Amino acid sequence: MSGVRTRRRRERLERRRARRRHAMAAMASTVVAVGAVSGLLAASDDTVRRPVAADGSVRQRVAAPASPRAATVPAPQSPPVTRHSPAARPAPTAPGSAPPASSARPAPGPGTPGGPRPQPRATPPEEPLTLADHPLYRHPGSHVLDWVRSHPEDPRRPLIESRIAEMPAAVWFTAYDPATITARVRAVTAGAEAARAVPVVVPYAVPDRDCGGASRGGAPDHAAYDAWMRAFARGLGSGHVIVVLEPDSLALADCLTERDRAARHASLARAARTLKAANPKARVYFDAGHSGWHPAATMAAGLRAAGAAAYGDGIFTNVSNFHRTGDEVAYARRVLAALGGPSRLGAVVDTSRNGNGAPAPGQWCDPAGRALGQPPTTGTGATRIDAYLWIKLPGESDGCRGPAGSFAPDYAYALARG
């Protein structure tokens, strides 16, 4: 029995030794295989990165800089992690805490959870609209339009309608009417705002208006005028509007005493301040006569005394007169230069009846042989000339072919024919 046991022990020992030999052989095969694969990967990587010479040989690779992970990078005090830059090496994770984010992961971008909100694209500020961005306003209530509507069969009607009635023109406010002036002005400016157009309004109620001439009248005194002007200003609305402030109020002021002239200057300055305070978009222009009247320096002195440079937007010339546009433009620039005000000051010129130029001296009242001038526009193309306007409505009498301001169809027809 002992022999049998001995034999069995030897067999078990041989079987164990055989198993060990097989295990060692398998391990050796695995090591060889891994080494072969590593060698293949290294050779492949080296071939890709190394430039190949013309003869097919691989050139020696330039040594790459040391890996950033091998260097110690000092962390900044306030670490702004750039989205595409690796972060500093993470600190060891405390037991039970979440693992740190991978250093290769980009920072959250706009629109991703945890990232910054997308910022709306900046919109450039809208530039404020100027006078030239709007057409001038044609008010539907004028003497010429009333005549056109009531004379459909008159042979003069087509020419008067097409050449005068369809043109934008100023609206005059000549009555001293404190109770109704706000509503009357607002009716005009509201219509212009609805039409997206620029109205031209003419307040004409200064005390001692026209020095007792054909257009005499106005407020009874300057305190009453101030109140009337405040009511006028309340009707301006908030849109663009051109205010032709009191025609002849400065050019014809030499009929006044020195004291009355000073009072008028102060009253006009207050009026301009009131108008601008009520509507900052209002463009207020002061009286500068015309090129055939006072020298530029004389007019500039009166304008300065009335606050035109301080409170106004410029001057107007040639109202109810006939001087050619070129002469008026040159004159307006001389007045502005003599005034010495800011460069923003400009001028508007009445071109309604100056197509044939001025008549002989002294012939100012509905003279014969005149013609319509350049149509109204804010696009003059002339330096410091803001607009050519029809301030005096063609066909409305100066006082010789009918009451001042009334419509004279014969005169309108003659002007339209030229």
Automatic annotation (TrEMBL):
<feature type="compositionally biased region" description="Low complexity">
    <location>
        <begin position="85"/>
        <end position="106"/>
    </location>
</feature>
<protein>
    <recommendedName>
        <fullName>Glucanase</fullName>
        <ecNumber>3.2.1.-</ecNumber>
    </recommendedName>
</protein>
<feature type="active site" description="Proton donor">
    <location>
        <position position="248"/>
    </location>
</feature>
<keyword id="KW-1015">Disulfide bond</keyword>
<dbReference type="Pfam" id="PF01341">
    <property type="entry name" value="Glyco_hydro_6"/>
</dbReference>
<dbReference type="InterPro" id="IPR036434">
    <property type="entry name" value="Beta_cellobiohydrolase_sf"/>
</dbReference>
<keyword id="KW-0378">Hydrolase</keyword>
<dbReference type="InterPro" id="IPR001524">
    <property type="entry name" value="Glyco_hydro_6_CS"/>
</dbReference>
<keyword id="KW-0624">Polysaccharide degradation</keyword>
<keyword id="KW-0732">Signal</keyword>
<feature type="compositionally biased region" description="Pro residues">
    <location>
        <begin position="107"/>
        <end position="127"/>
    </location>
</feature>
<feature type="region of interest" description="Disordered">
    <location>
        <begin position="52"/>
        <end position="136"/>
    </location>
</feature>
<dbReference type="InterPro" id="IPR016288">
    <property type="entry name" value="Beta_cellobiohydrolase"/>
</dbReference>
<dbReference type="GO" id="GO:0016787">
    <property type="term" value="F:hydrolase activity"/>
</dbReference>
<keyword id="KW-0136">Cellulose degradation</keyword>
<comment type="similarity">
    <text>Belongs to the glycosyl hydrolase family 6.</text>
</comment>
<keyword id="KW-0119">Carbohydrate metabolism</keyword>
<keyword id="KW-0326">Glycosidase</keyword>
<feature type="region of interest" description="Disordered">
    <location>
        <begin position="1"/>
        <end position="22"/>
    </location>
</feature>
